[in-house]
Amino acid sequence: MDAGEGSSKNATEPVRTIQSGDTILLRIPSGDVRTLKLEKGGTINLGKFGSFYSNELIGQPFGLTYDISDKKLEVIPPRTFQEVEETDATNELIVDGQVQPLSLEEIEALKKSGVPASEIIQRQIDQHKNFQLKTEYSKEKYKKRKEAKYSKSFSTIKPTLFNVCDYWFKKDQSRLRDIRPDTLSQILNMANIRPGGRYLAVDDASGIVVAGLLERLGGQGRLITICDVESPPAYPVLTQMNFSKEVISIMSSLNWATADEEYTPVLTMADANADTPKSESQRSRVNKRKSMASALTQTREELFAGEFDGLIVASQYDPFSILEKLMPYLAGSASIVVHSPYVQIVSDLQAKLRDIPTYLAPAISEAWLRQYQILPGRTHPLMNASGSGGFILHTIKVYDDPSASSVNTHRRAKKARSEQLVSRLSSTAPEQTPGQREPAIDIAAQSAAIQMEVDPSNTPS
Amino acid sequence: MWSTAREIAEGDLVIVWMTRDLVQPLAISSGKELNTRFGVYRHAELIGVPYGSKIGSRNGKGFIHLLRPTPELWTLALPHRTQILYLADIAFITSWLDIKPGSHVIEAGTGSGSFSHSTARTVGPTGHLWSYEFHEARANKAREEFSSHGMDEIVTLTHRNVCKEGFTVVDTVDSVFLDLPAPWDAVEHAKKALRKDRATRICCFSPCMEQVQRTIIALNDAGFTEITMYETLIRPHQVDVTPPLPTVSTIGNQLKEMEARREAKRLRQIANSRSRGDKRKREETEDSAEDQSAEKRHADEVDGSGKRVRTEVSVTQELDATLTEQPTTARRANAVTTTSDAGAGPGTDGQNLTAHVVKEETPESGLPPSKPSVSKAFPEVRGHTSYLTFAILLPASAIAEASTNMESPTTEPTPEAEVTPATS
């Protein structure tokens, strides 16, 4: 734990470069992100931004920006920002309209002749009547807009959890059930995901939660997911993560039938009448069925043995029914995180859970995120932002001790007594003498309250 | 890091959860006693108890929950030596910096160790965290803490001012997190510590926009790219359970009833004072039946005034109405019909009246009341922590390649020269 010791810890882990078979994310000049599967020896077509040989990318580190020229790639330096010098220009003399400096045909001809984008933009500027009347800021904006239009370049994006989540969220947030990168990171931290931990997940959010879990487990520990389909679920988000086999190997999936303790696997019954395989192919089929059956049995046993460290739920189904089902398999002090795009779903859940003593302090939160444009002298929040990344309920599983009494029980008893008093007063029928018991009062509530009165709860409040 | 065993053992650090606002760490050491306003507990009696247990105090007064420490609970429970980082920022930084198992990370300054614990958990035994603190006493305290939390293998803590002296490692880490008053002074040092064979990441954490402005200039000058900035917060929501909101026609009817009852009472009072005058004249000849009816009238009056009070209560408290409010309204409606019956025929039997009321309301209160839950943001929330400025440092080789490409632009393309058929 002292200075210098660190240098010996230099990583041996090799640099992960772009490989054939990877599904990669590319940012094109317009700012949009595209995804594609990289195959050796192919050509990648980015439409008006050009096309290039896929081999050009193989072996490259992630995160670089390239110019496309003659189907080959050339690394170009990333954009840095320069200070913009103020001038006297104010835009006030600009006459709207009549600014098109080059006709469409002229631009098309230039593009076809292979003139680089910067050249086209320069020619446009040269012929632009109002360009010199613009402020320096406006000029910058103009150039940037034109670059987005004409430049034949793109950048590769490293498939980090943040970038993959961001890509999917921007593409179609409903498929992620509104899980935004900041929400996802909060979910993973709240659930205390650590390498070596054992977790349960219910992910109806295209696999973004599973992707996060697998990434943070790093091939160490265990993940059992429960899904609503017969065959192992397709988690499409995993494609962009390009996980290795080892990272994925720690995951098994059950569905709501096989995760039920009452369920009898059909597969195990089937191999009883397949004793005498007729052919080689039948034998291998039987073997496959057997190994599937035993894997299923094993996963089921593992789930039912319980003691999992945490549970993450991002599901379209009633979250309370999910918690009821999976709660028995969680260890004491396990974190439970439930995400929903709707606050009502988690508020209703919170209202139910807070009456159940095995859920400690269920709390609801919403992530708030604001991104800024960062330019010298031009820093401000982005004009467009995501409205919500959904709502998170977090709670901790605890073992209840009904004999223990507390401040809360005391308060609850007090509240119950006062509620009773109110209802007793308000329900007193005209002819009743004061103090006469109203027969309609909920008997259960009453006896509970009486029990609490007897309870030696003695709290400092 | 912390114990992963099912049960609490001697020497373990546990998190004692008393209330949402009172969460504290406790190192188990048999022979010691935990004495709080939620009771008295002997450490020896907590050994062998499963994590997550609710424990009643020895004298039966109050209880506590014993939780397994997590970095998130530690953030709630830790002794503050400085302003600390909270969940929203920690989680977002971890995610943007791509911190995961096996990552090598630098953090400066250590502060109270909130970010350190979270990062140590996430990088795990295959990763490493180099943490730097310029305040000697805080550094020593943090070192002690990391050691007792079993983090020696994962965290290297150094007492040093990184703005002046730089970091202890070169070309080693995947990401750098700077929580310093003047992060711009550490940017060049950070660049040295970051690995050059891959794209690496940096985050500067500053509460003021002026700091951000200086930081981005320093980052830009040092060759960092994709500079971006975020602000993130957690908005906690509170949940309330309410009965369905009463409609205004209910309130209107209640007001009409009140008015009618007041009028009825007034007429009764006039009638009473008249009859009292009559009574004085023929006191001796009064029969028991009349006595009863007077008593009855008196009961009606008492009831009338009592009800008025109640109605006012229900009007003013409609928003935080209790669960019993709905059945009460139903009962009141019934009671009102019976009262007006009684007014029409003063001789009605009181016993029957009560029975009628009870019969009417029993099915009503037997139904579970529907309880919609509503939620809203807490009235007071954290409004700002810091601005998170992020940037990327591309691999040295790529930067070199790019600059040579720029210096000698390739000869213009000859599109027709070599026609290569596209395979797709």
UniProtKB/TrEMBL annotation, chain A:
Residues 404-438 are annotated as: Disordered. It is found in: Nucleus. InterPro entries: TRM6 (IPR017423). Its main location: nucleus. Gene3D superfamilies: 3.10.330.20. Keywords: Nucleus, tRNA processing. Residues 420-435 have a biased composition (Polar residues). Belongs to the TRM6/GCD10 family. This is tRNA (adenine(58)-N(1))-methyltransferase non-catalytic subunit TRM6. It comes from Somion occarium. The lineage of its organism: Eukaryota, Fungi, Dikarya, Basidiomycota, Agaricomycotina.
From TrEMBL, chain B:
InterPro entries: SAM-dependent_MTases_sf (IPR029063), TRM61_C (IPR049470), tRNA_MeTrfase_Gcd14 (IPR014816). The keyword tRNA processing applies. It is found in: Nucleus. Residues 259-352, 402-424 are annotated as: Disordered. Residues 313-327 have a biased composition (Polar residues). Its EC number is 2.1.1.220. It comes from the Eukaryota. Residues 62-392 form the tRNA (adenine(58)-N(1))-methyltransferase catalytic subunit TRM61 C-terminal domain. The keyword NADP does not apply. Residues 328-339, 407-424 have a biased composition (Low complexity). Residues 293-311 have a biased composition (Basic and acidic residues). Pfam families: GCD14 (PF08704). Coiled coil: none annotated. Keywords: Methyltransferase, Nucleus, S-adenosyl-L-methionine, Transferase, tRNA processing. Its main location: nucleus. This is tRNA (adenine(58)-N(1))-methyltransferase catalytic subunit TRM61. It comes from Somion occarium. The lineage of its organism: Eukaryota, Fungi, Dikarya, Basidiomycota, Agaricomycotina.
